[in-house]
User: What shape does this take?
Amino acid sequence: MFDLVERPRRLRRTGAMRALVRENRLHAEQFIQPIFVREGLTGSADIEGMPGVQQHDLDGMLRTTHAALDAGVRSVMVFAVPKVRDAQGSRACDVDGPLTRAVAALDAEFGDDLVVVADLCLDEFTDHGHCGVLDAEGRVDNDATLEAYQRMAVVLADAGADLMGTSGMMDGQVGAVRAALDGHGASNTGILAYAAKYASAAYGPFRNAVESALQGDRRTYQQDPANQTEALREVRLDVAEGADIVMVKPALGYLDVVAMTAAEVDVPVAAYIVSGELAMIEYAAAAGAIDRRRAIEETLMNVRRAGASVLCTYWATEVAGWLAEESRA
Ligand code: PBG
Assistant: This one.
């Protein structure tokens, strides 16, 4: 026998003991399930690069959302793919546009039982694929884009969105959207701010999901992956402008940013496990390199442990099902 004063392994001896001292847990109610709705689609369609994720018509969206709620997930994030696009992204602000209609259908079906986050961005609606409108030189025009975001926010609030997912990374977008909502009498509609959003290669499959028209990249508005301090600035600005929840995106490569953000703010912190991060795990699992379920559970726990309470993940409903199964076992 060695004379060891501390033996940390005692607390790992049995499953019950490990559960007793577990520091972090996953809860389905803290997941957000992203959903893709495609205008003109009948039924559902697979998405290249996103195994297990589909685009839906409105019926399919409602069915998917029922399944999420049945599993214990109570929030969805809606993205829409329009049939036609233009330079201004005008269908984003159309009351009959696909996003507005999807949000209204969810609100009518689920009311207060569901938190509906509407993606507030122009990229799905512009024919050039950028998150804003362009100036005469073809550059993304920050302030003209803010005006479009304000129009979009009012339409989405009327449709019944609970939270605006401001994902465009324009300067001042949270303040502009907050002012538009308040001016419209929608002071109860909140803002889930994509505060620190990086120009990441991990959005590749998502661009298939929304059939993005983007040529080039988003480096003049999304953050440089090399920067950390800048994230604190973005987060500070969004909180000052009225963000109700701040999000870091992507999640896995940016756990340092999640942890810093959680240490800095007094609003809830969310993190988005993005399409490319899903793809890395799905394809590695499909190749037999890793155990799929364990890798997914561990991944979500990593993000939770780093400090995000809210997890936006394509696996939300499936993992919620596992959690329910484990709590019955
Ligand atoms: C922009 C938006 C993007 C994602 C969410 N919102 C794409 C982008 O910034 O290029 C990516 C999500 C993912 O990759 O899962 N509206």
User: Anything to note?
Assistant: The longest helix spans residues 142-159. The chain has a mean pLDDT of 97. The chain has one domain: 25-328.
